[in-house]
Amino acid sequence: MSTTTTEVERKTGDGSEASAAGPLSAEELRKMHAYWRAANARADRFIAKVHGITGDVLAFSSGHIIRMIAARWNGLAPAAGRAFFCHPASVGVLGFEHDSRDQPVIRLWNYIGEPRE
Q1: DSSP 8-state code for residue 105
Q2: Whose CA is closest to 61, among 95, 90, 104, 101?
Q3: What is the pLDDT of residues 10-41, one digit of tens each?
């Protein structure tokens, strides 16, 4: 094996397998890690900002970062975000159990309301 590659599966930005399998180059690994470090920092900054606000907060986001926010909200590693499937245009509600800021919970996830006639 070359010193510039490692035997890991190729992953897309959302953690799913890419169509082209094979070893990643060192440069590809650096870019991938930089992307996820930046996304994790964004998620953590958002959460810190929300914790500093009194009252309700409404936020819109893409599926990839909102999944990471859900994981980080609950104190999980950023990679755990891949376990939070997110439907397009769905609603999620992050909150606190017993309104205690040290007990974050997901109150609602993937809600898609039915249109009324």
Answers
A1: E
A2: 90
A3: 444 545 454 455 788 888 888 888 888 898 99
- Residue type (1 letter), 105: V
pTM to 2 decimal places = 0.70
Separation between Cα atoms, residue 5 and residue 77, nearest integer Å: 26
Q: Which helix (H) or strand (E) holds 49?
A: helix 26-51
Kindly report, residue by residue over 44-58, the tens digit of the pLDDT.
999 999 988 888 888
Can you read off the two tokens belonging to residue 48?
Answer: 């810190």
Using alpha carbons, select from 22, 16, 61 the residue that is nearest to residue 42.
61
What are 102's two structure tokens?
Answer: 């040290």
| Angle (CA) 91 76 60, round 5° | 25
Give counts: helices (H), strands (E), the chain: 2, 4
Look at the block and give the residue holding tokens 């890690």: 33
